[in-house]
Specification:
RNA-binding; about 15% strand; four-stranded antiparallel sheet; 15 strands; Rossmann fold; Four Helix Bundle (Hemerythrin (Met), subunit A)
RNA sequence: GGCGCUGUACCCAAGUGGUAAGGGAGAGGUCUGCAAAACCUUUAUUCAGCGGUUCGAAUCCGCUCGGCGCCUCCA
């Protein structure tokens, strides 16, 4: 059984073979090389952006779950029109400006429980490698210089357009192909290197001073970090054209070898039925939502729970639904931890867990079908709840089940969330004890009073036959 | 105009040829001093619509209607 993923290049579901060479065992494969297009650090990322980054996270986590090791890079674009403009507007250096938003970006990633990746190259730290590629392209005569800017010559790269299927495209009447201020021979040619304008930062090169075009950094970083064909390249669907098409053109023209084996593209997050985007103004940042009182955990759940190739319509109601779903999982774990029974009289626990793994893997192997996998998981939750109600599980069974849930959570990343120690634990515990005594004394008025008081603080009490447990409402 | 994604219950969402997963919400029941949690039962003769292929289709084909995106910076 192998993982199947949808490759934008072939528009088909393909069996995933890292390195292009089938091996006997998963552990025989070299680390899976992944490159993900990261953010341009000119302002806060919005949660549409995070949908893609959470998908990247799901992908690498699942590969690891399946036994692959991963070598994953995500870039930080820290020089482009927007960052330059932003720095200028604030009267600080480009570096000061981009450092600020880079830091915020990584904080947000952490809040969403997105694993750090192995490499986070910055565009401004990869100039040398960009020039290397440009030299190669130059040697092959596939570029030209126009007013100090260097352009890739589409007409000399016949494969251009294979990824986006736009090679034979007709130009829509009125399309703004003349938007670029520079002189290009063909409207579809794109800048490898841009001549400096007034007040803009620039780097000295054998081709003269200037700054990178947008697409060159990804090609350069991939070469710098991986040095050869990579397995997976990810990004939002809006990057298929022109960004990824241009990356392919640059890298394959320069090095004459296949650039990427599998192209994975994440569909957009919609809000009110339209694409969430900065320019449209219809976006939420993570901070917006946190300020509204939502937690990162249900946000992660919501963004991860729909299949990545389907548009997902974001609503605040969706976050609430996610909170409820998570509560169901949390309640199960609380119940499992509460089991004290020592003797074993149930023999199906291992089978139940084995089936969980099998069905989960089957769903996820199919192009990372997380919704199917969640269905499998919640069926398991129901079964275990029933077993607990029937008092069939021992403490040992419960521990095995918790371990299995944690194993799946190495992929989900929304169950075990960092939670701070409860500073009020002692006080709450004392009140709980007082209430137990009140109940014994049939003083239900006082008992309810305590319960209501704690509820005000968001603390839920649950009476079980073994005593009272409490939890914070998430 | 070209290239894509998409339309499944009140909401979210799997299923891509074998007779509709799962979550939320709703209703009834069990348990409980009352709750909460959990469990049980229940909620789509039907998958935008209409044709076709097939023993059999939500799944394949055709047409129609609707939503979204890319073709310009964009995850």
């Amino acid at each position: 059984m192998a993982i199947k993923i949808y490759n934008t290049m072939s528009r088909k579901l393909e069996e995933f073979i890292p390195g292009g060479e089938p091996k006997e065992q998963i552990t025989d494969y070299p680390p899976v090389t992944i490159y993900s297009c990261g953010p341009t650090v000119y302002s806060f990322a919005h949660i549409g952006n995070f949908r893609t980054f959470i998908f990247n996270d799901l992908l690498r986590r699942y590969l690891k779950f399946r036994g692959y090791s991963v070598d994953h890079a995500m870039n930080i674009t820290d020089v482009d029109d927007k960052t330059i403009k932003g720095a200028l507007a604030e009267g600080i250096t480009l570096k000061e400006y981009t450092d600020k938003y880079t830091k915020i970006f990584f904080e947000d990633l952490k809040k969403l429980n997105i694993e750090p990746v192995e490499h986070n190259p910055r565009a401004t730290e990869s100039i040398e490698e960009m020039i290397d590629i440009i030299k190669k392209i130059d040697e092959k005569g596939i570029m030209y210089n126009s007013e100090g800017s260097l352009y890739f010559d589409i007409s000399k790269f016949p494969q251009y357009g294979r990824l986006s299927n736009l090679d034979k495209r007709e130009i829509k009447a009125g399309a703004r192909y003349d938007a670029d201020e520079y002189n290009k021979e063909d409207v579809r040619d794109f800048a490898l290197w841009k001549a400096p304008k007034e007040n803009e930062p620039f780097w000295e090169t054998p081709y003269g001073p200037g700054r990178p075009g947008w697409h060159i950094e990804c090609s350069a970083m991939i070469r710098k970090i991986f040095g050869k064909t990579i397995d997976i390249h990810t990004g939002g669907v809006d990057l298929i054209f022109p960004h990824h098409e241009n990356e392919i053109a640059q890298s394959e023209a320069a090095y004459g070898e296949k650039f990427v084996r599998y192209w994975l593209h994440v569909e957009h997050l919609l809000v009110d039925g339209a694409k969430m985007s900065k320019s449209a103004g219809n976006f939420y940042t993570l901070r917006d939502l946190l300020n509204m009182g939502y937690s990162p955990r249900p946000i992660r759940y919501l963004l991860i729970s729909a299949h990545y190739r389907k548009q997902l319509n974001f609503t605040l109601e969706g976050i609430k639904h996610s909170e409820q779903a998570l509560e169901r999982i949390d309640n199960l774990i609380v119940r499992l931890r509460d089991i004290k029974k020592e003797e074993h009289n149930f023999n199906e626990c291992d089978n139940l867990i084995a089936k969980l793994y099998f069905d989960f893997t089957e769903a996820m192997d199919n192009d990372l079908n997380i919704s199917g996998a969640l269905g499998v998981f919640f069926e398991f939750v129901s079964k275990v709840n029933t077993l607990i109600s029937e008092e069939k599980l021992s403490k040992n069974d419960a521990e095995k089940i918790i371990a299995a849930i944690n194993k799946l959570d190495s992929v989900f990343g929304f169950i075990n969330f960092e939670s701070e120690e409860d500073v009020d634990a002692e006080r709450i515990e004392a009140l709980v004890q007082e209430r137990i005594q009140a109940k014994k004394d049939k003083n239900f008025k006082r008992a309810d009073e305590i319960r209501d008081m704690l509820k005000e603080e968001g603390i839920i009490l649950e009476d079980t036959k073994d005593g009272t447990r409490w939890k914070r409402k998430k």
